[in-house]
Amino acid sequence: MQNQKAGRVSKILKDLHQSKKKGVAWLIDPDKCPMKDSFITKYDWVKNSELNLIFIGGSQFNNNNFHDVVDFVRQIAGQIPIVIFPGSHIQLAEGADSILFLSLISGRNPEYLIGQQVAAAPKIESMGMEVLPTAYLLVNDGEITSVNTISQTMPIPNTNAGLVRDTALAGYYLGMKYIFMDAGSGSKSPVSHEVIEAVKNNIPIPLIIGGGIDSIEKLKGAYEAGADLVVLGNSIEKDPGFLAEVLDYKAYYNLCLNVN
Ligand code: 1GP
Fold it and tell me: Phi-psi bin for 217: left (phi > 0), alpha (psi -120 to 50), beta?
């Protein structure tokens, strides 16, 4: 077995969780990453920013040039870790620092509980990247987003915080080290505060929240409910300036934590 890369991302997530500080991950969808000089010009400042992580992945991406996308994004990432957020086992690249090794435990499709993982495991082993064992739950108000269509699973409703909590707890008991609750890309109904609180108050591992967070108000709500790291994708695609706004807000929020 190859040595896995040192746990840089796990340290970032652990530090956020323990310090109660908040983080931001920018999700870049490889289907929408234009791989043009204009992208690099537009986002060249990111490498010097306080962005915690860059996620790359998408539920629809099926091209075999995933490594090109990762290498391209590296130009604006600098030292910010690139984490693969895979939609399937073909979304792998040596140039990434880490991979969210997801099991979609809110659903009952064996392909996304363990099938894709078996296909990916030996490739990840040979690449030697850091592996982040992650319980992945889809939770929203009943909207069907692309991840539901692809995975052929339904989200757990926001109204059923008890079931979300029990599911996340099962993931924790199975040894997963991170929980990622996702409303789905572009969802109109983000994971509810009640759900975030139910998981945060009962399960002592880093909590990642994403899906449909398209305003500072929603970001603040997720932070206050207990998210350690918030993932944003669509809102930055629509308005690249929003990333800078989000990072300013995160800095302000963390500063207030220190003051109080
Ligand atoms: C989707 O959580 C991510 O899997 C991000 O969602 O694109 O809606 O921000 P958005």
Answer: alpha
Summarize pLDDT for 222-247 with one digit per residue, the tens: 999 999 999 999 999 999 999 999 99
Nearest CA to ligand 1 atom 1: 185
Q: Is the CB of 234 under 6 A from ligand 1?
A: yes
Q: How many CB atoms lie within 10 A of CB 133?
A: 16
Q: Ligand 1 in contact with 27 (CB < 6 A)?
A: yes
Domain range list for the chain:
8-259
212 lines ligand 1 (CB under 6 A): yes
Q: CA dist 90 to 28, 65, 86, 120, 215, Å?
A: 16, 10, 8, 7, 32
* Residue-wise pLDDT tens digits, 117-169: 999 999 999 999 999 999 999 999 999 999 999 999 999 999 999 999 999 99
Q: Which two tokens stand for residue 108?
A: 């009952």
Instruction: For CA atoms 176, 183, 88, 230, give the dihedral sign.
Output: negative
CB of 232 within 6 A of ligand 1: the answer is yes
Which CATH architecture describes the domain 8-259?
Alpha-Beta Barrel (3.20)
For the Cβ of 189 lying below 6 angstroms from any atom of ligand 1, the answer is no
Tokens at 157, concatenated: 């409703």
Q: How far is the CA of 95 from the centre of ligand 1 (A)?
A: 22
CA 260 to centroid of ligand 1, rounded, Å: 31
